[in-house]
Design a protein that fits this description.
The chain is α/β, with parallel strands linked by helices and about 575 residues long. Among the domains are: about 120 residues, no CATH class; about 270 residues, Ribonuclease Z/Hydroxyacylglutathione hydrolase-like (Metallo-beta-lactamase, Chain A, 4-Layer Sandwich). The protein is built from 18 helices and 19 strands. The chain has an eight-stranded mixed beta sheet. A seven-stranded mixed beta sheet has the order 11-12-13-14-15-16-17. Strands 1-2 form a two-stranded antiparallel ribbon. It is elongated, with a radius of gyration of 29 Å. It is a multi-pass membrane protein.
């Protein structure tokens, strides 16, 4: 998954196009011939592109602008598809791996959409408008000013919808979400970009002559940009405005683009071969059926299996659980060596998994590498679009960290649940259960690690144990609890566990032979950072796990670890 940093898109091609064409027209009106105006414009725009970082979209726009100028000089017809193809080839010759970059795909995908998909959507829109007009008694369609307004709206809306149709799989694959309101925001933002760019240039020139004149013009531009920011802020804050279905599978993407290519190919065929208007009408019917099916293919992603994913968070812990009935649980989330864990790792990982809300965020103990990611989520719900409904936390009123988390939760509408031994979260009529089985009292140990909340998860015949950073007396007490539970014939607790989340990142002070004899894990999952300063996991722990017969999977070697189960069988996947 590309870095979330890629979202901070550099200079866009829109600016290049606006500035280039404006400059070219000014030079032509000043009396320069085609050749002179083209050369001067291209030199200035090339310098502008270099100055702004040579982003993919900027390079594309420059090449297309240069080809357009060349066509006018040579008296040839400009072809957008050919110029875009040339730009793509030049970029890939210089940087072949750019073909995997999300902004390369989005930039050229948008151009492809305007060339091939936009005519399909626009003509279908015209057909729908004519149908609506006839149903409302306008036999010849809407006339006068209504026709002009409707045509303008249709042109803008069809372009925005077309770009969205082509780029939806890229957005979901890269970021796991689709901003629904962007289709409509573009109707306001893109037309006003010419005004913003022109205003900025005029303000700069006016400021040379008179600083107050420059300030006045720039003030208008400033408030226009503030309006854009406000609109985008409203879009982000609205929970329904972002669809988060998660990353689609390769098969879905292939089928999606096959349908889209089929529509454009059929449109081209009908345009050149249709003998009567009925052919066009039948095609519009087909578009109205197929496009919603394509959207359903991308956005409908039912959860069939219980999914447990141990994210790679560096030196820390971070696990999320997706229950088939829609419940989402976060088991710890924090790191001591990954900067901005929440923004760059946690949020992208959750969205890639299709999670837009966390029903319960469990903090096993109050060490930074177990809670700072959760704290980020709570404090930035309006920015990330991910809602945290409840936090389960050990009640330690003498700890300042406890009150920091409680205050953050209260300020952001998140419920606080103080953990206790025996508390249980159930779903699917009891088929799924997550129970706190230790410690008896959260403050019975002076050491934070020893007092970690121990959570036992069961899903039909599948069982997993989450141990936080438990060690020493805490682990001894846990072993006694498990022995006692196993000795009770009426207990529903498992005799052994399919998967063990190894405590304290594999520290030698935890996961003793006695504990492993009781837990009997098939698979042991260890969360630790690459080349971490603590040298976790320790050799002693690895040796004990091997003797116990458990398979060992580590995030520092495998990246994220995903477990999927139907309650009877389970499978384990690794990122690399």
């Amino acid at each position: 998954m590309p870095s979330i940093l890629d979202r901070k898109k550099p200079q866009t091609g829109v600016h290049i196009s606006i500035i280039g064409m404006t400059l070219y027209r000014i030079l032509r009106r000043a009396g320069l011939r085609f050749g002179g105006a083209s050369v001067i414009s291209c030199i200035i725009i090339a310098g502008y592109g270099i100055m702004t970082g040579n982003a993919v979209s900027a390079v594309r726009a420059f090449v297309m602008f240069a080809v357009s100028c060349g066509a006018q000089v040579l008296g040839r017809k400009y072809d957008m598809a050919c110029s875009a193809s040339l730009a793509s080839i030049l970029i890939l010759l210089d940087m072949p791996l750019m073909i995997t970059n999300s902004w390369y795909l989005l930039s050229f995908g948008a151009i492809a959409a305007l060339i091939k998909v936009n005519p399909v959507i626009y003509e279908t829109g015209e057909w729908l408008v004519d149908k609506a007009a006839s149903l409302n008694g306008y036999a010849d369609g809407y006339k006068g000013k209504y026709k002009a307004v409707i045509k303008l709206l249709m042109q803008s809306l069809s372009a925005s919808i077309s770009v969205s149709l082509v780029t939806v799989p890229v957005l979901l694959l890269s970021f796991g979400e689709f901003p629904l309101l962007s289709i409509f925001l573009n109707l306001a933002v893109i037309p006003l970009m010419e005004f913003v760019m022109a205003g900025g240039i005029i303000a700069g020139i006016a400021g040379i002559v008179n600083i107050y004149a420059g300030r006045f013009v720039m003030g208008v531009v400033h408030y226009t940009l503030l309006l854009f920011r406000k609109m985008c802020g409203i879009s982000v804050a609205a929970e329904w405005s972002h669809i988060i279905p998660g990353r689609p599978g390769l098969s879905k993407i292939i089928v999606y683009y096959m349908l889209l290519v089929a529509l454009t190919a059929l449109h081209t065929y009908i345009r050149h071969n249709a003998k009567n208007i009925k052919d066009g009408g039948m095609f519009s019917y087909a578009v109205c059926v197929i496009v919603p099916l394509m959207a359903l293919l991308m956005f409908f992603n039912p959860v069939r299996y219980l999914t447990v994913r141990m994210m790679y968070v560096g030196q820390g812990d971070g696990i999320y659980i997706r229950v088939p009935d829609g419940m989402n649980i976060l088991m710890d989330a924090g790191s001591t060596d990954k900067k901005k864990l929440g923004e760059y790792t946690l949020v992208p990982s959750l969205k890639a998994g299709g999670i837009r809300s966390v029903d319960y965020a469990v903090i096993s103990h109050l060490d930074e590498d177990h809670y700072n990611g959760i704290l980020y989520l709570v404090q930035n719900q309006n920015i990330t679009g991910i809602r945290v409904r409840s936090i389960i936390i050990p009640e330690l009123p003498d700890d300042d960290t406890y009150w920091t988390i409680v205050r953050a939760a209260k300020d952001n509408g998140t419920n606080i649940i103080n953990a206790y031994c025996g508390m249980k979260i159930e779903a699917m009529n009891g088929q799924f259960a997550l129970e706190c089985i230790a410690p008896d009292y959260v403050d019975m140990y002076s050491d934070k690690n020893e007092g970690s909340l121990i959570m036992q998860m069961t899903y039909d015949r599948f069982a997993m144990l989450f141990t936080g950073d438990v060690q020493g007396k805490g682990e001894e007490n846990l072993t006694e609890v498990l022995n006692e539970a196993a000795s009770m014939s009426s207990t529903k607790k498992p005799a052994g566990f399919n998967i063990l989340k190894v405590a304290h990142h594999g520290s030698s002070g935890s996961t003793t032979d006695e504990f492993l004899e009781r837990v009997k894990p098939d698979v042991a999952m260890i969360s630790c950072g690459i080349d971490n300063r603590y040298r976790h996991p320790h050799k002693e722990t690895i040796d004990r796990l091997r003797v116990s017969g458990a398979g060992i999977i580590r995030t520092d070697e495998s990246g994220a670890i995903t477990v999927k189960t139907d309650g009877k069988k389970y499978g384990v996947e690794v990122f690399r």
